[in-house]
Amino acid sequence: MKRNTYGWVVHRRLLLFILIQLPISLIQAQHRADSIFIQKLFSTALVQKQGYYFLKDLCNHAGPRISGSPEAAKAVEIAYDYLKRFGADTVYKQEVMVPHWVRGKVHEGYYLSGKTKHTIQIEALGGSIATPHGGIAAEVVEVKGLKDIKNFTEKDIKGRMVFFNGPMEEEHIQTFKAYGGCVSQRWAGAMEAAKLGAVAVIIRSVTMSVDYYPHTGSMGYNDTIKKIPAVATSTIDADRLSKELKKNPSLKLFYNIDCKTLPDVLSHNVVGEIKGSVYPNDVILVGGHLDAWDLAEGAHDDGAGIAHSLEVIRLFKELGYQPKRTIRVVCFMNEENGLRGAIKYGEWAKTNGETHILALETDAGGFTPRGFSFDTDDKSYAFINTWQPLLHQFGIGEITRGGSGADINRLKGNCTILCGLHPDSQRYFDHHHAANDVFEAVHPRELELGSAACATLLYLVDKYW
Amino acid sequence: MKRNTYGWVVHRRLLLFILIQLPISLIQAQHRADSIFIQKLFSTALVQKQGYYFLKDLCNHAGPRISGSPEAAKAVEIAYDYLKRFGADTVYKQEVMVPHWVRGKVHEGYYLSGKTKHTIQIEALGGSIATPHGGIAAEVVEVKGLKDIKNFTEKDIKGRMVFFNGPMEEEHIQTFKAYGGCVSQRWAGAMEAAKLGAVAVIIRSVTMSVDYYPHTGSMGYNDTIKKIPAVATSTIDADRLSKELKKNPSLKLFYNIDCKTLPDVLSHNVVGEIKGSVYPNDVILVGGHLDAWDLAEGAHDDGAGIAHSLEVIRLFKELGYQPKRTIRVVCFMNEENGLRGAIKYGEWAKTNGETHILALETDAGGFTPRGFSFDTDDKSYAFINTWQPLLHQFGIGEITRGGSGADINRLKGNCTILCGLHPDSQRYFDHHHAANDVFEAVHPRELELGSAACATLLYLVDKYW
Question: Are A217 and A230 within 8 A, CB to CB?
Answer without folding.
Answer: no
